[in-house]
Every structure is written in structure tokens, then in C-alpha cells.
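As a warm-up, study this chain.
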Amino acid sequence: MVKKMVSLDQTEIKIISLLQEDARFSFVKMAKLLGVTEGTIRRKFNRLTKQGIIKTTAICDPYALGFDAPAFVGIRAVQNKAKNLAKEIAEMPEVQFVALTTGPYEIVTQVVAKSNKQLFDILLKLSDLDGIKGTNTFLMLSIYKQSWNLGNSLQQELRKRKKDKVSPTAFVFTTTLNFCKDLFFIGKRSSRIRLL
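Now compare it with the structure written out below.
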């Protein structure tokens, strides 16, 4: 999914950073921390969600919920069918992530399964799709880091802009935090985002 580039102002960047630190931040608390009104926070939050720049939801630990066979699957596809295959694979409920890629695979996916048997069934389902030349599966044994936190990168860019006195730069990103539908979250972040 390719998104059109959007410009974010300093307040929007800080809102994103705060929400990535703790998605339960209230608008009132954010407004106090950022020195703006609650209405400003609400308006900017609504713009960010309406434009698809951010999506907020819970992230779960798949292992705690009994999904003991998470895996990445590299898919070699017939070149002119890769895009349509990616769209078709994205519709499968067991698939959490799909991307067209460079390198040895045209498509990389992440799947979540409760057992090796269920993972095997998912792989069979994938192999039946027209246009797939082959797959390689990478079973995740242990996850050490999972983060969609772009807030720190945005804050660094904001500091650089202030230092260089550069006009706002366009950013492209969508933080998709779907309940049990993205890369896995283990533990809590201990770092705090320093506000400028």
C-alpha cells in the first residue's frame, strides 16, 4: 500500500510520539504537555486518523494468546502476478503482514498460527494460489524486539529541522496497530520520549 506523502507540523509529530509512548494518553493530558488546547489536539488527531496516517488499537502478545507458531514466509511469485497475489494473500485472516519486496522474494508475509499443523495448513493454502513459484518459511522461535514506533525518528527529524532551520519535511507512514494483526509485541517500552 503506497500512501501519498503528507506534511506534519510539530504538534502532529509530538501527538504521534505521545500516542506511540502510550496510546491511552488523553487529549487533555496531551494538550497540557504540548502547551496547546484540547480542541487543537482533537482536531489534529481527527485529521491524522481520517487521512490514515495513524490507526490506534491494542497490540497483543501472540504467545500469551496461544499462537505458538508465528512465521515469516518469503514467496517467490510469477513477476507479473506478484501485485495481485499480494492483494489476495492480504485477505487471508491468518496473514498479519504482506509486502512486495526486492531480493529473493517478490512477497514477504507474516502469519500467526496456533500450532505447526495450523501453520502447515496455511502454507498449503498459500501454495495453492495461482502464480506462486515457491515459498520459504521462517518460524519465529523468540522475538526480541517489535516496534512500529516512528515517534523517535520523527522527533529526531524535528530537532534537525530546528537546528538547520529547515521548513517542514513531508513524511510518509502509517502506523497500523491491529489487535493481533501486526508484528508481535513482547514487553513494554521503557524509554520515554523527550518533548522538545
